[in-house]
Amino acid sequence: MALLSAALSGFLLGGSLIIAIGAQNAFILRQGLLRQHVFLLCLICAASDAALIALGVGGLGTLISQAPALITAVTLCGVLFLAAYAVIAFRRALHPEAMEAASTEDGSFRAAVVTCLAFTFLNRHVYLDTVVLLGSLSARFEGEARMAYGAGAALASFVWFFGLGYGARLLEPVFARPAAWRVLDIVIGLVMAALAISLVLTLL
User: Fold this and answer.
1) Is the pLDDT of residue 81 over 60?
2) Cα–Cα distance, 181 to 87 (Å, whole number)
3) What is the H or E stretch that residue 13 is in?
4) Which positions ≥6 away from 131 have C-beta within 8 Å?
5) Do 203 and 72 form a contact (C-beta atoms < 8 A)?
6) Is residue 132 a contact partner of residue 124, using CB atoms and an 8 Å limit?
C-alpha cells in the first residue's frame, strides 16, 4: 500500500509538471498531426524524462542546484534555440498547408530527432522540474518507496507523451484546412518566443 501511494504521488506530481503548453509538447503535437516519427520522438521525450527523474531521485538534484553556471549555460543555449524555432514557426504560418499537403513534407528523421533532443535538454525547466524538484521531493520516501515514487513520475511522462503524439490525429479533421495550420504555427511561434523571453528574464 505504501509503494502504491508513493508511485501515485510521483505520477500525479510528474504529470502536473509536464502537462502544459510548452515547446516540447507543441513539437510533439505537430509531429503527431503530421504522423512523422511519432513513436521514436515520444520515446525520446519520455525516456529522457525517466532518465533525468532517476538521476534526481538518485541525488543528482542537490548537485545541480549548487551549479548555477551550468543552468545559466543551458538557459542561454535554450534562448537561442527557442528564438530560432519561433522564427521558423512564424514563417510556416505565412504559407500554411492542409493536412494532405503537410503530411507529405520531407520530414527528415535526423532533423526531427535533433530538434526533439534540443527541446528536451536545452530547456532549463526540465532540470529544475525533473531533477531538482522531483528529486528533492523524493527525500520524503526511503528505499523501495523512493523507487516507486520515481517510477510513478516516469510513467506519467510515458502516458503523456504517447497520448499527445498519437492522440493528435484525432484533430485531423480540423487540420484539413490550411487556416488551422496557420493558427497552430502562430500559437507555436508565440509559445516559443514567450519561453525565450521568460528565460532571458530569469538571467537578468
Assistant:
1) yes
2) 15
3) helix 2-18
4) 52, 53, 55, 56, 60, 61, 64
5) yes
6) no
pLDDT for the residue 19: 72
Cell reading at 143: 528505499
As a whole number, mean pLDDT of residues 158-162 equals 94
- Residue 10, exposed/middle/buried by CB under 10 A (0-12, 13-18, 19+)? buried
The grid cell for 150 is 520515481
- Locate 12 and state its grid cell: 500525479
Report pTM.
Answer: 0.76
Cell numbers linked to 135: 528529486
Which sign, positive or negative, has the C-alpha torsion 117, 195, 186, 156? positive
Virtual CA dihedral for 166, 168, 174, 180, nearest 10 degrees?
-140
The Cα–Cα gap between 196 and 201 comes to 9
CB 25 within 8 A of CB 119: no
What are the residue ranges spanned by the domains of the chain?
2-203
| Closest to 117 measured CA to CA, from 178, 45, 68 | 45
> Which triple of cell numbers denotes residue 14?
510528474
Residue 201: Cβ within 10 Å count: 8
SS3 160: helix
Cell of 22: 510548452
Helical (H) or strand (E) element with 25: helix 23-34
